Amino acid sequence: MYKMMIEDLDSVFEVSPYNPRKCNSPPRSASSSQRASVVNGSSLPSDLHLALTPDCPHTISDSDPALKKDKESKIKKWKKRLSDHIRKTSSGSGPSSPMMSAHSSSSIGLRPHASLPDMKPKARTLPSSKAYSKQLNGYTSPQKDEVTQGVKQMTMAADHATNGGLLFNPRSNDEIEEEVFHNVLPVVPRKTRKLSEIAKPSSQYGRLESYSKLEELGEGSYATVFKAISRVTGNIVALKEIRLNSAEGTPFTAIREASLLKGLKHANIVTLHDIIHIPGNLTFVFEYVEIDLCRYMEKHPGPMSPNNVMLLTFQLLRGLVFCHERKVLHRDLKPQNILLNSMGELKLADFGLARAKSVPSRTYSHEVVTVWYRPPDVLLGSTKYSTSLDMWGVGCIFVEMLCGHPLFPGLKGIQDQLTKIFKVLGTPSEETWPGVTSLPEFKKGQFKNYSRKELGFVIPDLVKATGAEPIATALLQLRPGLRISAKDALYSPYFTSVLPKAIYAIDNCASIYLVPSVKFER
Hints:
Layout lengths: L1 H7 L1 H4 L18 H8 L6 H6 L13 H27 L6 H6 L25 H8 L4 H23 L9 H11 L11 H4 L12 E9 L3 E8 L5 E8 L8 H10 L10 E7 L2 E7 L3 E2 H7 L6 H20 L2 E2 L8 E3 L5 E3 L6 E2 L19 H4 L8 H16 L10 H12 L29 H4 L2 H4 L3 H8 L10 H5 L2 H4 L26
Antiparallel strand pairs: 1-2, 2-3, 3-5, 4-5, 6-8, 7-10, 8-9
């Protein structure tokens, strides 16, 4: 009890600027009201009364070391005499004191409310937890523990003041906040995180060791594809490892594919799960799809089921509508870049030659699309093309699935490819295709004058499938501007007369096979 009473006198005397309870805070002179809270009602020796009065020498600020030492010595003596006086009074050996008699029925160092009828105890509120947490940002754990301990002590003192009476020297909320949040802890600047630390891969993704290779699926001119299993999710994935040349850098096709696929989330577009970069190698982690359309048709030679052709073509158009609405051209549609899983779900893949198209269209390279699926305007050197480029490829793939063989299989270069096209669709002229003669690769007299034939006459399998010939004709137009768009083709009678309306209402990321009546024939 007495120890706490003596310690509380420190806040009145403000012994020195090195007071550990103040943690190097500048000395403050006790106010008259604070000293009065100790003096009033107490029968202290006269020199102790003097020590607590406003004109006490220790309240004078002086930077002289000798005077400071003398002041500290006097304060220590006063504290000792006060301590002795308290002990004598409480044991009955000294003069009676109203203040000390009050202590006999109160808690440690506090005066009960009954002895102060006109004085209401002042409840003290500590800084909010939000402000407390804010002030602690940037400090180390030992420093936080020190602050927490200080706050606990002040909370106990505030509880005493509220429940039992007043402390000898109650301090204001501002003083407590200053002591806890400004003087107890040194100001530690917050450490700035480096960009390399922020960009570090997580423990699960962005690491090659998160995937275990199972087998090689294929190898291209600059990449190799592996079947692998994710050690994080347990799912089967496809790893596309792109070899990097230190002299040439990362292939532009890889950069283009990654940037486009990040923004194309659709049920009929292959999903890019992860990207891993290590020295000399860039790996794309794709969802695993069992087979591509080319290999599927090799395993199932001959014409495909009209139902399956319709469902696959619908999914192909559905994926292209999503791309074209976002101004993205695939530019390399062919059976090898169309993937199929065991459920009959189609996925557009290999966006290495794809690119975002601005409006109006700009000049692009004409060295795109495998020659069998390349439109005549691109074969003739046109560099101004739009979504019609992809629609020609859809027409070629659609007819190939129905008849079981490529529609225009040129074997001797571009000249032979154009000849095969013109034999079926007719040789173009300025009357049938305005501006064709101005294309870079068009030369007068280069091709024989072939007349146009009906696709159903050339490909009898088109007639067998209801509504197949009209949509094939709309897709395979020599003049780019006459080709049907992906969205218009999706709503053509070929689909709407057979497929349920619910198939048009499903979400972009949902499979068409969620519609009960839609089934792929295996």
